Amino acid sequence: MRLHRLSVTAFGPFGATQEVDFDALSDAGLFLLHGPTGAGKTSVLDAVCYALYGAVPGARQSPGTSLRSDHAPSGTYTEVLLELTVGERRLEITRRPAQPRPKKRGGGFTTEKAQSWLREHDSRTGEWTALSRSHQEIGEEITQLVGMSREQFCQVVLLPQGDFARFLRADAEARGKLLGRLFDTRRFAAVEERLAELRRAAEQQVREGDERLLALAHRTAQVAGGAVVDERPGEPGLAQAVLTQAAVARSEAREALDIADAAVSAAESRQAAARRTLDRERDLAARQARYEETLRRQEALESGRPERDRVQAVLDRSRKADLVAPALSLRADAERDHGSARSARERSLGRLPAELADEGAEQLSARERRLTEELGGLESARRAERRAAEVVRERADLDRQARADDDILQDAGGWLSGWEPRRAGLATRIEAAQEAAARAEHLAGRLEPARRRLGAARRRDELAERTTAAESRLTAAREHRNEAHESWLDVKSRRLQGIAAELAAALTPGDPCQVCGSADHPAPARTGADHVDRVTEDAAYAAFTRAEEDRTAAEVEAAATAEAWAAAREEAREGAGPEAGPSVAELAAEVEELTLRHAEAHALAAQTHGAREALARAEREYENRVAAQRDAERRVAARTSRREALDREQTALEAEVARGRGASASVAEQASLLERKIAVLIEAAETVRQVELTARRLKEADGKLADTAFRAGFDTPDEAAAALLHDGEHRTLQHRLDAWQAEAAAVADRLAEPETRAAAGHPPADPEAAEAAHTCAERALREAGSALAAVRERGAELARLSRQTDTEVRRLGPLRAEYDRVARLAGLTAGTSAENERRMRLESYVLAARLEQVAAAATARLQRMSSGRYTLVHSDARSGGKRAGLGLHVVDAWTGNERDTATLSGGETFFASLSLALGLADVVTDEAGGVRLDTLFIDEGFGSLDDQTLDEVLDVLDSLRERDRSVGIVSHVADLRRRIPAQLEVVKERTGSAVRQKGTGA
């Protein structure tokens, strides 16, 4: 990787654009980067790192810090451009960090997002081709091409000597952290952690299996009633002890089961014998009780025999009376029908005239036929009466229509007489409304611009006052900013004048100086009376920063206000000519006048549609009234002829109605009177006939009833009626007789049973004693059965626990073997196993190999720098109780002794750390895939060397050109400016730092 050109704008201390030509510096091979403290030497290296990776090294990228220069104007973007060749490709990277910029609208600032550009140079066409603008894609492309992360790049290309000096003095753990970041050995640490996790997981599984096995052992002991095993989880004999315990418990359970089976068999035999004895006693007692009960029932039957004979006699007479029951029912029905017919005849005869009360049915029917014939002759008179009523209604309708037509003709004539003047007035209204519409449109075109000009004039006057106030605030802000700037520059200048004393205050005897690198401090500077410390300078700078922000905000506010005032003034002057714009009062009067005129014209124009609609309605009404007038005249002529025909018809109808109604008021009334008389006659004739019929039936029923009663054996019908029983009484008596007969049959059957008679001859039975003996036998059987069930359940539970124990032991075997294997590997990789004699972790082992390579590469340069005296070697010896693997010693050829690198002096430590840094750069470069690093930077430390050692170190650095490399030295040492002609100087100025190239022809 070779750097060609660097351009920074508004970055760090650089307020303006600064260019660095690395091609010119690389031609010299060795160049010096120098400048006063705080000028920005490190910022040049930061810019290179930021262009490649989008971030600066170390703490300078911490949250809250900004890459933007405080010297840069507000409109200038912070930007870094780097042109380089890597992997045979010439690239150009441009980056802009997130930064504030003035808002395009209104005042204040907004944050501009970070941006990146990547371009590649085409050597054939000589043009640049855009590749990407994505932060992620550019970062991945650069990291892949360079082959190093940002941390590796900062450690290998920007060689910070202070870090390697600490590396030489550090312990194994600190060296491991640095080497781990450079060589990315996280995968080996991940292997260690993974093995540790597997060991913990396997250990947990084994422990859980032992706990389950021990829980089974406790359960087995609880079921069997024995002792618990003494082994604990993790002990090797636990599984065998649990298996032995389970086998012993199963054997004891089988013996107990055999004993319980024998006890149950004996109890069952005793219980069966007691059961048979109990059944015999119970049967004998039941037969004896049955015989005694049968004797008691026989005595009860004999005592109730007289009542049974009486019930039998009542039932026999009831059966004879049942033969007379139909005749009795028939005679009662005939008597009831005859009474009903006589009552109906009395009611109907009461509605007849007195002279007809004694007439028979035939006479009444003859009168009814005569009235019916008279009613039929009134039908023609009814039709004539209905038609006469219709004629009256029709004449009334004709009179009503005549009056309505008269009103129509009178109204139409009056309205049509004023039609022409009305039509002319409506046409005039339409013409006036159309003229008003055109006038309103013209006024509207003038009114809207006038309103805009009025609003603009009001804004103009308001903005004029605000512009004056903003200019006053801007003037005050500028004066305050200039005063704060001068105060800050004065304080900064005073601090720089006393910076030597401030640095001298931090000197410690024996430690190297931060400026020259010497460990001797013969004459440190002293602070003066007007010395200013860093806190005062920071406070002055903070005050200047706030004043600068206030000035910028005031400038933005004044510019925005002035721009708005100019726009409002031009809008208010629109159409007013080049002279000064009109006042607000003039424009308001003009708007008011135009508004009034427009409203009047608009109101009149709004009547156009109404006037047209009114004319259309009037024309439609004219046509309707003319048509109505003609229709009314036709209807008047037709009604005259119709009225004459109705008069003739009505005269004929009245004569016919008079003949039909007789003395009644109407034909309908006469017909209704005849219908009522006919109905009364019909009812009376029917009731007379019904009385005669029912009398004959009653007489026939009396004769049949007397004959039936005599044949049944009764003297009179009343005696037969008294012997009849209701259904309920008959069923009750029959049930009593049937029950007595059934009881007699049952008693006879029981007395005939041979077993019952034989039981009566035996002594009395004693079932209570047999019951007590049977209960004792059953209790003994239940107890024996419960004991057998408990033994069987215990045996089944022990068998189940034994199976679980066997299964758990078989499952735990592979887990324990896997745990032993993983634990051995984890102990080896973690350095805790006895097999790992040096207690070296896997990651430390890999880093030790890398450290051997670094020490070998560093020794090649250290021997030249130390005139062959020193050699760096890697040591894997243990120190005390610490782990081995990352020790670093120096071999002194003058004494032949090997000692720790922490014993080197200040100058020896510098060239030893420089050799280590260069060696590490070679190893990391090879590790990254062999990408050439053609440009290196070395930061400080040269002040601790004497002249001879400095010459040797510079010779070694100059020899790097043999590999076509260029080395940049960052140092304050004045003697290096004489020794190295190619220089890049960073100069501090009040407007920001600047870079100057010397000795390169640029």
Which secondary structure elements does this structure contain, and how are they paired or packed?
Layout: E1 2-9, E2 18-21, H1 22-28, E3 30-34, H2 41-53, E4 79-86, E5 89-96, E6 99-102, E7 109-112, E8 115-122, E9 127-132, H3 135-146, H4 150-156, E10 158-160, H5 161-169, H6 172-183, H7 186-224, H8 238-303, H9 305-321, H10 325-350, H11 361-376, H12 379-417, H13 419-497, H14 499-505, H15 534-572, H16 584-605, H17 608-661, H18 667-712, H19 717-723, H20 727-751, H21 754-760, H22 767-830, H23 842-865, E11 870-875, E12 887-892, E13 897-900, H24 906-927, E14 935-939, H25 947-959, E15 966-970, H26 974-979, E16 983-987, E17 994-998
Parallel strand pairs: 3-15, 3-16, 10-14, 14-15
Antiparallel strand pairs: 1-2, 1-4, 4-5, 5-8, 6-7, 8-9, 11-12, 12-13, 16-17
Helix pairs in contact: 5-24, 6-23, 7-8, 7-22, 8-20, 8-21, 8-22, 9-19, 9-20, 10-18, 11-18, 12-17, 13-15, 13-16, 13-17, 17-18, 23-24
Structure description:
Helices cover 68% and strands 9% of the residues. It is flat. The model has no long low-confidence stretch (mean pLDDT 77). It has 1002 residues and is an alpha+beta fold. Helix 7 packs across helix 8 and helix 23 crosses helix 24. The strands form four sheets. A six-stranded antiparallel β-sheet has the order 2-1-4-5-8-9. Strands 10-14-15-3-16-17 form a six-stranded mixed β-sheet, sandwiched between helices. The protein has a three-stranded antiparallel β-sheet with strand order 11-12-13.
